[in-house]
Amino acid sequence: MKVYPSSTSWIVKIHLRWTCTNFRKDTCSSNAPSIQTTSARNLRTSSSSVSRMNENSSQLTVFVYSKLVAREQEEREYSEHQSALVNKAYRTLLKPLSRGLYMLELKGMRFDEGTESGVDAEFLMELMEINEALEQAQTPEEADKISQDTKGKLKGLTEKIDGALRAGELQAAKALLAQMKYFSNIEEKVKEKLSGFM
To answer: Within 10 Å of residue 183's Cβ, how many Cβ atoms?
Structure first.
């Protein structure tokens, strides 16, 4: 009986080595299809041996493919999860308000609704005047002026908040963030007003 060349055994060994290297140990466990009959020592020209070789090769191919698909799915889900976290972090740190609130949260200070300590009667009066001027704006130029004024106030607040956080003055940063929150709402209202003129 003629034996297949030793190169066949080398190919099988390489295939096994790749399989066990690229998958977890369970790939090479007792659950994996046996390929002992495909070693060079057992490969004969008889039809029964070739049949067994083909059968075991097919089983191994299906097994490896299923492991590969499962691994790709797992890695894809992990990548999507990590990408979502990166995007969320980027959006949080991009805007001064959400960034400041996050920094306070890292220090253990919560910013609950209705507990804004940086809002006094004078500040509320200023907000009322700005909102009234925005409602009465009849042209894009009038609305744009309010927009520019609001952006200027937000820029100034951003600098003050960053300074307070660097100095560890958390209560001051919290009060300034409360003011920023109101001006951010006005900024959104201005955008809606300007879009109405288009």
So the answer is: 20
Q: What is the distance between the alpha carbons of residues 178 and 164, in angstroms, rounded to a whole number?
A: 14
Q: Which residues contact 17 (CB under 8 A, 6 or more apart)?
A: none
Q: What is the mean pLDDT of each run of 10 residues along the chain (198 residues)?
A: 42 42 46 45 47 61 70 82 86 89 88 64 92 92 94 95 93 92 94 88
DSSP string, 62-85: HHHHHHHHHHHHHHHHHHHHHHHH
Break the chain into its structural domains and give their ranges. Answer: 6-71, 95-196
Nearest-angstrom CA–CA distance, 154 and 130:
14
Q: In this structure, which long-range contacts are made by residues 130-133, counting pairs with CB atoms below 8 Å and at least 24 apart in sequence?
A: 130/186, 131/186, 131/189
- Extract the tokens encoding 37: 């009959």
What residue type is assigned to position 174 of the chain?
A: K
Give residue for tokens 């790709």.
72
Q: What is the pTM of this model?
A: 0.60
Contact yes or no for 32/70 (Cβ under 8 A): no
Q: Which of 30, 195, 182, 54 is nearest to 118 (CA)?
A: 182
CATH number of 95-196: 1.20.1280.20
Residue 44 pairs in a beta bridge with 3
> Hey, is 3 helix, strand or coil?
strand
Alpha-carbon distance values, 60 to 33, 66, 94, 116, 175 (Å): 5, 10, 50, 65, 66
